[in-house]
Design brief:
Strand order of the largest sheet: 1-3-4-7-9
Oligomer: single chain
Low-confidence stretches: 12-19
Radius of gyration: 19 Å
Shape: globular
Distance between the termini: 57 Å
Number of helices: 1
């Protein structure tokens, strides 16, 4: 029994250390980057720049209310319960990045987006029913879309170079 406790403790320590912060930027932790500002991604151990990212803009694709159903736990029989949630905007966010490790890909899942009332956005493809909107291409940019409960004049973005980090690599504020 003692051996199992030690094994569980070791696994827990490894898991927690794997989730710690692995990257920072060359600005203070509370600094909010702006549109078109280069973010230098720095490895916390080596202090080497391992890449850059730039949020090159954001565009409102849908600016009207729509309602979806989201999971709201389970009932006493284990059946999933749903609740109606109204979203008011869909925003497309454009970005560019370079990294030293060519196998590293930066995707929409590396970003957490918050509306002006600090509600976390949802990826439209995960909503049921999936809302209808038309994405737009912006030459030379990658992009992702996010649904926001509250329409506003700006969005806040937390960028996580490694998705398992406990603290975001960079914080960004983009005016809409």
């Amino acid at each position: 029994m003692k051996d199992i406790r030690y094994i569980l403790l070791a696994i827990s320590i490894l898991f927690i250390s794997a989730c710690s912060t692995t990257t920072i930027t060359d600005k203070p932790g509370n600094y909010k980057y702006k549109e078109n500002e280069t973010i230098n991604i720095i490895d916390i151990d080596s202090r080497e720049t391992i890449g850059t990212i730039v949020i090159t803009g954001a565009e409102i694709l849908k600016n009207e209310p729509f309602t979806v159903q989201e999971s709201d736990g389970a009932d006493e029989n284990g059946n999933t319960q749903y609740k109606d949630v109204t979203y008011n905007q869909i925003v497309q966010i454009y970005y560019k990045y370079t990294v030293v490790d060519s196998s590293k890909k930066i995707r929409g899942s590396n970003f957490d987006v918050y509306d002006s009332k600090n509600e976390r956005g949802a990826y439209p493809n995960l909503l049921k029913p999936e809302p209808k909107f038309n994405e737009k291409a912006k030459k030379g940019n990658l992009s992702f879309t996010i649904a926001l409960e509250n329409a506003g004049d700006y969005i806040d973005i937390d960028f996580n170079y490694n998705m398992t980090q406990t603290k975001s690599t960079a914080k960004i504020r983009i005016d809409l």
